[in-house]
Input
Amino acid sequence: MSKRGSRIARRVLFMMAVQSIGTTRNGISKNPPIRDYYLEKCQAGKPKMVALGAVMGKLCKIIFAVLRDGKPYVIKTREEHYKEYVSKQFPEVKHLE
Output
């Protein structure tokens, strides 16, 4: 993580990342795709803080996309995102399920 830029923005991103990978009291993930991404990084052998830094980068990309497109953030699984992508890119091809 670079020390350039706004300290406040880095702190906000850090807290967003911590909240995104967290679970509720019932054990339900608050943001399942982000938590899955974090757990993938941890299982790949990355230290927890490195994985958290990767989550912060992913959140930056999500925030930029929301601001760029002017659309609200919708939580989607990888499978849902893939189906939507394929149906838009190749409307004549039926998606194999």
